[in-house]
Hints:
With about 375 residues, this protein is of the alpha+beta class. It has helices at about 5, 55-75, 80-85, 125-140, 160-175, 180-190, 195, 200-205, 245-255, 275-290, 295-320, 335-364; strands at about 15-20, 30-35, 45-50, 90, 100, 105-110, 210-215, 225, 230-235, 240-245. The protein is globular.
Amino acid sequence: MELNxxxxxxxxxxTVGSIESFxxxxxxxxxxxxxxxxxxxxxxxxxxxxxxxxxxxxxxNNIIRVTDHIKNKLETQYLPEELKRRVLTVVKTxxxxxxxxxxxxxxxxxxxxxxxxxxxxxxENSEQAEAAGRAFGNFQGMLSDLPNPxxxxxxxxxxxxxxxxxxFKERVKEDPFGRFDEVxxxxxxxxxxxxxxxxxxxxxxxxxxxxxxxxxxxxxxNILFDENNNELCVIDLDTVMPGxxxxxxxxxxxxxxxxxxxxxxxxxxxxxxxELFKGFARGxxxxxxxxISKAEINSLAFGAKLLTYEQSxxxxxxxxxxxxxxxxxxDKHNLIRSRAQIAYFKDLERxxxxxxxxxxxxxx
Length: 364
Ligand code: GN1
Ligand code: MG
């Protein structure tokens, strides 16, 4: 399908100069559209993986509600040109919809590209980590008064670790691709933590942790920064849904404060950078202190272990299931990813008490 023709269904302005592959997501495919004129915006064109996000109209509706809400909040603070850098803008189709379905059944959407923004692939210092923490806390804070109705639960039980573990055990039993023998030790290791890892869902069900609107995919590359490394806004809003604060805190520590890569094959590289963690926690504290509860503060450092554990379960589950969910680009990629997450989890275990007391200390 010609990307140019797809784009023509949207209300964009200017002459398309180039369309190039963009970003590093494991689910959707993303392109940057450059327009020739200096005074026209550039755009982000995305095909939505509707095998995963099966209800695209509801997905779109969530994103429009979330971005409109943030826009209304920030309107008094920023002039229009700057406001456009602080929250994503959905570009509608000529029929007024937030997505377009082509003849092949592929769904597309367009956002305005945020001017003079960048992502940070690897944090260089604790100031940057602090900005990242502020960005995610601030995002949660801005959505803490999103009016009813509740957002659509686009991926039910997305970070429901208890459900993930139960599904994983089923998969292990079925072993559809005969890969279990190879991963038996990994499975045994993970299942030792079953009860501990189910505790957050339990606290939620018992009413100890409030359900809130959270981002749920807080990798570092989902924050846009300006040229001076100040946070501008949070992107990739597909999984914004009801959940717990510790999911976002935890997933950011999982992705952004690991000295190694998510799929590092050299496990010696994989460990927590404590200075970055502390910076991140300080930034998160600054933007969450006005709305966070005591029980939620207690859950934050644990969230790092939880999300890392869950991610290793998810990667291993996909490996056992023949690699159908995550894009992979080498043999055994999901297994490599899962083992890197297990190694990181072990390091978080070692560092847990220092992490937890540092976080608790901030809110004292
Ligand atoms: C997926 O596509 P991307 O990179 O934004 C996944 C996250 C995982 C991440 C692991 C909807 O995110 O939950 O943490 O890969 N998103 C979905 O890199 O499953
Ligand atoms: Mg994502």
